Amino acid sequence: MHPDVAKLVEAGRIPKSVGERLSQLAPGSFCTHKSFGAGKVIDWDLPAKKVTIDFEKSMGQVMELQFAFQKTEWIPDADFRAKKIEQIEELRTLAKHDPVELVVHLVHSHGGSMTGEALEKELCGTVIAEAAFKKWWDATKKALRESRRAVIPSKRTEAIVLRDGDRSPAEALVADFEAARDIKGMIRALEAIAADIGAFEHDTEALKRLLHDIDEGAQKASRVQLGQALQLVAARDEVIGSSKALELDPTAVRLADLVASVDPIKLAEDVGALPSTRQRAVFEAFPDAFGEGWVAKVVQVFDRVGARGVTEIARILLDRGGMPALATHLRSALARRALGPDALIWVCRERKNAAVGVFSPDVGASILNLLENDHLADGPRKTSRLQTLLNEDKNLLGDLVSIMDINESRNFARRLLDCPVFGELEKKSLMARIIKIRPETAELVSGENAKKREEPLLVSWDSLERKKTELDELIRVRIPQNTRDISIARSYGDLRENFEYKSAKDLQRYLSHRKHELEKDIGRARGSDFKGSDASKVNIGTVVTLTDAAGAESVMCVLGAWDSVPEKQHVSYLSDVGKALLGRAPGDAVEVRDTATELMRTLTIKTIAPFNP
């Protein structure tokens, strides 16, 4: 412990644990920062709670002690990163004359494992000249494999792992597997074995001993951690496939056994988190697991396995003649507005290839449905990638409206203009693409139609009060608190890596946008109790009784713009259902979308009565 810090600990001014961490930031010590790289502490001012650090990418960086505590990590003098600061020429000499030792030293400083990407970031442009790095690394990888001192994967994103120097490469790899304490550790060990299968060229017995342990681990994991069990068996199959001397025992658990053991919907939850190659292995096991009915089973999980799974399933079905079944499923889901964002993105991207028979006007309605519902829902956004696609694919909207008739394209454009997800500039950009293909939609953005969209909003007094209360809380409480939070977060320094500052600024943008929306909406709002509404036809403030073809009755109340309450069958006059009902008289047939099934239903208006609050 640094002498100055020891005095503070002895005086009881700071705990011992804080003193130990503080000593790691004493002048002359080394540390790392996620953005600035390695650094050497130059000076500190304990009374002012400041520390000055010369980082690789930011010399003389002054940081608050508390922020330095949180955002830096101490490293010893012998660490590779510390040597880069004061002994860079020695490292360059080592790179030239003993590159294997250089890499071993670097990886050891990172805990014995680091990806090729991280290694390149650490060496390229500093220890190794950028122009020479690729040639140097190709030669060094070859030397490392020959030395057997590390496992060198084929992909830059996978980890380079050091081996124990007292064991043969095969023994070290097997020992890593046997020492694994959980399924994840076993999977990593198997991946290392598959990446360096050549080490077992003369020692296949060691691998054969592992197969029983793998089988036992997979059976245990399948009962509580199905996803990991699938990964383990897939990794085992990769090892067997890369070794000519290994064969799978007839009694061993197979991917098809695990796939067939659970409901496909439950399986989708576990498969969605797996890497693409493992997902493909799982989906390729469906024919063995389900026989002739495998296509129907895999189609069930298509929209539940994430973006990677969607792509892999589509490729398998395309290769094996299963696309007609997928197309039927997608058309049905689109009609019901039940297709998720990942599958919808795939349909849009493949609209001129694999999904050409699925791309229809329903795709546009489904996109807007998902964006609107996600916007209104609590929790993290699920449609960000879908919105990004809509903005970045310059031809998508044009392709959509080109297959719509005039009324469909106008309704789609009108709905896009009313969609709360897009900003004004974004709407103009998107509308320009629609107008280019459908000039008749230009009238929607003219002054006359813009005025129509600014018509007064008829709302209940209760909903108006709720909006005013929300606006009042924004102005008096949330915005001032956010301003204080930004000020506090800014004092932590290093705004590029300051999570608190970024979060507070994101909230500031949301609060500002929300304040503008509320002020605009409240300015247009006209309160009403809906008493005395004309019930000769459906108006705002009327109760409508409807019947279906079987004679079953349902009741809907058409109320104000902010008065939708689905569980009470209260609908806003601005909703799709409200718009379909307004102006209709008893005996008229209307088409409305069922909120539970998303299917269109034809209902007949039986009676209309004034709404009684």
Write up what this structure looks like.
With 613 residues, this protein is α+β, with helices and mostly antiparallel strands. The protein folds into five domains: 3-77, SH3 type barrels (Roll); 84-242, no CATH class; 322-452, no CATH class; 457-528, Helix Hairpins; 542-610, Chitinase A, domain 3 (Roll). It is 55% helix and 12% strand. A five-stranded antiparallel sheet has the order 4-3-2-1-5, sandwiched between helices. A five-stranded mixed sheet has the order 13-12-11-15-14. Strand 11 (542-547) and strand 12 (553-559) form a beta hairpin. Helix 15 (276-284) crosses helix 18. The longest helix has 30 residues, at 461-490. It is globular and about 90 Å long. The mean pLDDT is 86.
The mean pLDDT is 86
Instruction: Tell me the distance between the termini.
Output: 74 Å
Strand percentage: 5-15%
State the helix count. 29
Low-pLDDT segments, ≥5 res:
none
Radius of gyration, Cα only, in angstroms? Answer: 32 Å
Instruction: Tell me roughly what share of residues is in helical segments.
Output: 55-70%
How many distinct domains? 5
Overall outline: globular
Question: Can you list the strand order of the major beta sheet?
Answer: 4-3-2-1-5
The major beta sheet can be summarized as: 5 strands, antiparallel
State the total count of DSSP E strands.
15
Q: Give the class from helix and strand content and strand pairing.
A: alpha+beta
